[in-house]
TrEMBL record:
GO molecular function: hexosyltransferase activity
Biological source species: Alteraurantiacibacter aquimixticola
Keyword terms of this UniProt record: Transferase
Keyword Oxidoreductase included in the entry's annotation: no
SUPFAM superfamilies in the cross-refs: UDP-Glycosyltransferase/glycogen phosphorylase
Pfam entry (one): Glyco_trans_1_4
All copies of domain Glycosyltransferase subfamily 4-like N-terminal, residue ranges: 17-189
Name by which UniProt lists this protein: Glycosyltransferase, exosortase A system-associated
Length: 413
């Protein structure tokens, strides 16, 4: 049985898109017969034991405190994670180290892999220098941006194989001169065992929630996710007065939180459409399906940027699996997921009027809703179900490992 150690920034029981993709990958690999565990670096800040079970998965934690000036601190962080990987490998002998971005995890895996003689697969979920620009913690072209990019290039160059979550990231790596044969796409997917059985709006809890939020008879436009600037929620709020001109009973339901939450709420309060906008704040992940049940259209008005053009988000796929209509801005990451007028609709990014028109037009086309929802659900089931996508990892592992060595009876379990 192939043993895979996933090297992670953070994991369950913390909740994030990053942690949920990891959970989906590891569960799908276990179903395929792989033996998997995870290890997190020092940025996993939730208290817990050194070896922690979460949702049927095993995670090991790196311990320690790192100080020092920027640059040296990150280098020490890499060293601490590499040492923790090597220590774990003495007890639980992995066949492959599967590191997930950021590049610091990849660098720690390379160090450990060299010491242990174990191949390294490096998976890029986003270029973190671009993510920092997108969430307001960095600036394009800064020293930190250039250093992060240089570290990424080094890890990609040294890893035995590289995985990206979408074509946008792969194309960017090819433009940097990396070998196409070394890079495999492992697209974002949905665990249909979790999202494939949506709650109906008529469910008693969903009805009570709708009454509590005063959503009326709808229609309801929804957004569920993190409130970052690049998500374009300010454009969505700005679109509401125009949408109400054509559909006066429409409501906007915003579920989640993040750095832009206060600004977006203040904008909504100042809007002529404030009576039609609802905020819930963050909600427990196990209750998210109830909020999906309240919506007719899920809106994803991402702003156009290098980040949103290169990276595919997970939330539109979850919405499709939930049987919801999807309206998304026409950026590269969305174009990889949504076929306009077939599995959803696309509209001009950074343009509230275009967003309002797309939503209103879709609301006018109720007779087409069932076909659009069916096509979207079929697309997810055929191309984005983790139960299928995870099979691609096996080919990657076999390529870098070769024949899996037979374990001796005394090998650590």
């Amino acid at each position: 049985m192939t043993r895979v150690l996933h090297i992670l920034d953070h994991s369950l029981p913390l909740h994030s898109g990053y942690a949920f993709r990891t959970r989906a990958i590891m569960h799908a690999q276990m179903k395929l017969g792989l033996d998997v565990r995870g290890i997190t670096g020092l940025r996993h800040t939730k208290d817990g034991p050194d070896r922690e079970e979460a949702d049927g998965l095993t995670f090991h934690r790196t311990r320690g405190e790192i100080s020092g000036p920027a640059g040296l601190r990150e280098w020490r962080e890499i060293s601490a994670l590499a040492d923790a990987i090597c220590a774990l490998a003495q007890e639980w002998r992995p066949d492959v180290l599967h590191a997930h971005s950021p590049a610091m995890d990849g660098m720690a895996a390379l160090r450990a892999g060299q010491r242990l003689g174990i191949p390294v697969v490096y998976e890029i979920r986003a270029f973190w220098e671009d993510a920092a620009v997108g969430n307001g913690t960095g600036s394009a072209g800064s020293l930190k941006y250039r250093l992060t990019r240089a570290l990424e290039n080094h890890v990609v160059g040294q890893a035995d194989h590289v995985v990206t979550i979408c074509e946008g990231l792969r194309t960017d790596l090819l433009a940097r001169g990396f070998d196409a044969g070394k890079i495999t796409i492992m697209p974002n997917g949905v665990d249909l065992s979790l999202f494939g059985n949506p709650v109906e709006r008529g469910d008693a809890l969903a009805r009570a929630l709708a009454d509590e939020l005063s959503l009326g008879t709808g229609p309801v436009i929804g957004f569920i996710g993190s409130f970052y600037d690049y998500e374009g929620l300010d454009d969505l709020v700005s679109s509401m007065p125009r949408l109400l001109e054509r559909h006066p009973e429409a409501r906007l339901l915003l579920v989640g939180g993040g750095p832009m939450a206060e600004a977006v709420e203040a904008q909504a309060l100042a809007s002529s459409a404030r009576h039609a906008i609802r905020f819930t704040g963050r909600v427990p992940h196990e209750h998210v399906d109830r909020y999906y049940a309240l919506t007719d259209i899920m809106a994803y008005p991402r702003k156009k940027s290098r980040l949103t053009d290169l990276v595919t988000p997970l939330k539109p796929l979850e919405a499709m699996a939930q049987g919801k209509l999807v309206a998304a801005s026409d950026v590269g990451g969305h174009r990889e997921l949504v076929t306009h007028a077939r599995t959803g609709v696309l509209f001009t990014p950074d343009d509230p009027a275009a967003c309002a028109a797309a939503l209103a037009d879709l609301l006018d086309r109720r007779g087409e809703w069932e076909a659009i929802r069916g096509a979207a659900r079929e697309y997810v089931a055929e191309h984005r179900d983790w139960a299928r996508n995870a099979e691609r990892y096996q080919a990657v592992y076999q390529r870098v490992i070769g024949p899996v060595p037979t374990r001796h009876a005394g090998a650590a379990a």
